[in-house]
Structures are given as structure tokens and as C-alpha cells.
Specification:
Elements (H helix, E strand, L loop, with lengths): L4 H31 L7 H13 L1 H11 L11 H61 L3 H12 L11 H58 L1 H4 L8
């Protein structure tokens, strides 16, 4: 049995469109699972969810391109409505992605300030504990007093050898506490720098992706005006 070129073309376009519809359905299901449960007003959830949506855009674009492959030729009657809806949805997605950019920027600042506030509070709390420890050590005048302070902090019995010089012990302990305070300050600054860098990279990557995808969806909407018109899709 010989297959004509027209039949071969119909078979090929039918398979491509079927794959396109399948990719679109998978993309919709994926996005729905990303949105459940909704955590609106949570900047971290909004930021990460929008980023995840942008990273799934290529599959959606590929699905739409495959669905529109061949334009009006060899279409089932129901596709008249489906293609019209997809065309208008492309415009809506383009607008949504464009509006997502300033929201992403705002959320990145909110996340940075919130996490900054948290790490600052932890840093201040740790430094206050160290400062109280320092004051107690500075007021201590004997090994017994120092041992009691160390025991209170360690919550276990502490034994100080008689050969240890009391003043040297105090000096060494105070120096260690000063180093601990400096380490806390250094770790806080490192955290801020790392978080700022991470947020900038993600924000730039996802916003650039959203902008490119928005332009592509708009071009798809513009080039599928034939699908929005009430034309017979099977006409040549």
C-alpha cells in the first residue's frame, strides 16, 4: 500500500500536535501542583514559585508551537475553539509574565530584609550571652569563682588545676570570648553577602527569563490571529 505525500503530512502533523497537547497538559498539571497550597503574601514562596514557573516555560512554549504546527490544515472541528482559547491565553500569559518582573524584584528585597532581621536578632542574642559571660569573668577574683562561672556555662563540673595562673586564665578566656564575638560578626556579614548574591542571581535569571518568555508568548498571540477568527480550520 502506497502512502501519498498528503497522507504522510497529515500523519506527521497529527503526531506533532498530539505531543504538543500532551506537553501543555503536563505543564498545566505541573503549575497547579506548584500553586498548591497557595501562600500568597509570603515573599519567599512567591519568589521561588514564580522562578519555578519561569523554568518550566520552555516546555509550554514547545507544546504551543507543536499544537499550532501546520496552522489551519487538517484540523478536527473542536480545535476551532481550542486554538482560539490558546491564542488568547498566550496574550494573558505574556502580560502575567511581564507583571511578574516588578513583583519578583520587590519580593527579593523583602526576603533580604526579613532574613537580615532574623540573622541580626540571632547575632545580637549570641553577643549578649557572651557579653554577660565576660562581665562575670571580669568580676571573678579567684579560681573557684571562675570555675563556678565555667560550670554554669558548660552545665557540667569544671576542674581547674592549681598550677594554672588565675590572671592568665581570665585573660585567655576573655580573649576567646572576644574571638567568638568577632566570629559571629564575620559569619553574619558572610551570610548577608551570600544571601545578597543568591537573590541577585536568581532575580536577574528569572526576570530575564520572564521577559524573554513574555515576548515569545506575545509573538505567538500576534502570529495566531487566524486562530482567533471564526474561520473553517479545514479550508485550504
Amino acid at each position: 500500500m502506497t502512502i501519498s505525500p498528503d497522507q504522510e503530512r497529515v500523519f506527521s502533523s497529527g503526531i506533532l500536535r498530539l505531543v504538543g497537547y500532551g506537553l501543555l497538559v503536563m505543564a498545566i498539571i505541573d503549575v497547579l501542583f506548584l500553586l498548591i497550597p497557595l501562600q500568597l503574601m509570603d515573599p519567599l514562596w512567591e519568589f521561588q514559585t514564580m522562578g519555578a514557573i519561569v523554568e518550566r516555560i520552555p516546555v509550554t512554549l514547545l507544546g504551543i508551537v507543536l499544537v499550532y504546527y501546520g496552522e489551519k490544515s487538517d484540523r478536527a472541528p473542536i480545535e476551532t475553539l481550542v486554538l482560539k482559547i490558546l491564542s488568547w491565553l498566550s496574550l494573558m500569559v505574556a502580560i502575567f509574565l511581564l507583571l511578574m518582573i516588578p513583583l519578583n524584584i520587590t519580593n527579593s528585597f523583602r526576603i533580604y530584609h526579613q532574613q537580615n532581621a532574623t540573622v541580626n536578632a540571632q547575632s545580637v542574642s549570641q553577643k549578649e550571652v557572651i557579653e554577660q559571660f565576660k562581665e562575670q569573668l571580669e568580676a571573678a577574683n579567684s579560681k573557684a569563682e571562675i570555675g563556678a562561672i565555667l560550670q554554669q556555662q558548660a552545665k557540667q563540673e569544671v576542674s581547674i588545676p592549681d598550677s594554672v595562673n588565675t590572671q592568665k586564665l581570665k585573660t585567655d578566656l576573655l580573649a576567646d570570648l572576644k574571638n567568638n564575638q568577632d566570629n559571629i560578626t564575620s559569619q553574619t556579614q558572610t551570610f548577608r553577602a551570600e544571601k545578597r548574591s543568591w537573590l541577585f542571581k536568581k532575580c536577574f535569571k528569572w526576570n530575564l527569563g520572564a521577559l524573554i518568555a513574555s515576548i515569545l508568548f506575545f509573538l505567538i498571540w500576534k502570529s495566531t490571529d487566524w486562530a482567533r477568527l471564526n474561520l473553517n480550520l479545514n479550508e485550504d
